[in-house]
Amino acid sequence: MTSPASFSLTGKVALVTGGGTGLGRQFAITLAAAGAAVIVVGRRKAPLQETVKRIEIDGGQAACVAADISVTADIQDIVSRCSEYFGAPDILVNAAGVNLRQPVDDIAESDWDMTLNINLKTPFFLARTVSDAMKAKGAGKIINIASLQSQRAFANSLPYGASKGGICQLTRAMAETWSSSGIQCNAIAPGFFRTELTQAVFDDTERASKLAAQTAIGRNGEPEDLNGPLLFFASSASDYVTGQTLYVDGGFTAK
């Protein structure tokens, strides 16, 4: 029987990309509250420091590394820097992402490449790097962030949709590759949550209301709605779950 202790992350180390803002910050705070020592990574140092301060005020352990994880050649060094604080990560949350929301005719090759690089390429190379220490321990949790657009098509967001569709297959491939070494690889696909990536949507109150009406529950998501799924995938409660994408969307994809 699964007990509350199964969801404890005491003694674990979590690395969260994009942890300075939005859902990445929410993930970092949630993991720290469950007992993990958290390292947040992103390009902007000030927001990362704000996340660390919030976690420490709440009694948790946290540190930050300001770096551009989209530069593949730097990933090994970034992981090494992160590991200097609390040790090698037991948990990786690939939360960093970008969505330019451009009309199809405005998408330049550089826009496409940047989106696929940050949203799909970086999660793979980062996961492969941290997997070495996880395999040595015989345990690890890799959590990718998918999207409604992993399954549904939205206009003016083609590169993002392609990258998030790829995340689901990448997650399955990671699970096939590393699960026998004790590493569970899963993905969370949020519905509409107010973040920097979706601010333009929520600034249009009529559009936001229409999206809420498309859910089975009848509302858009609140950050706390992701806490349970995140802790499930990050903890021993999910030790027999791998290669899965969980849609936390209020039933949007069920309709």
Automatic annotation (TrEMBL):
GO terms for molecular function: oxidoreductase activity, acting on the CH-OH group of donors, NAD or NADP as acceptor. InterPro entries: NAD(P)-bd_dom_sf (IPR036291), Sc_DH/Rdtase_CS (IPR020904), SDR_fam (IPR002347). Keywords: Oxidoreductase. It comes from the Bacteria. SUPFAM superfamilies: NAD(P)-binding Rossmann-fold domains. PANTHER family: 2-DEHYDRO-3-DEOXY-D-GLUCONATE 5-DEHYDROGENASE, SHORT-CHAIN DEHYDROGENASES/REDUCTASES FAMILY MEMBER. Belongs to the short-chain dehydrogenases/reductases (SDR) family. This is Gluconate 5-dehydrogenase. It comes from Veronia nyctiphanis.
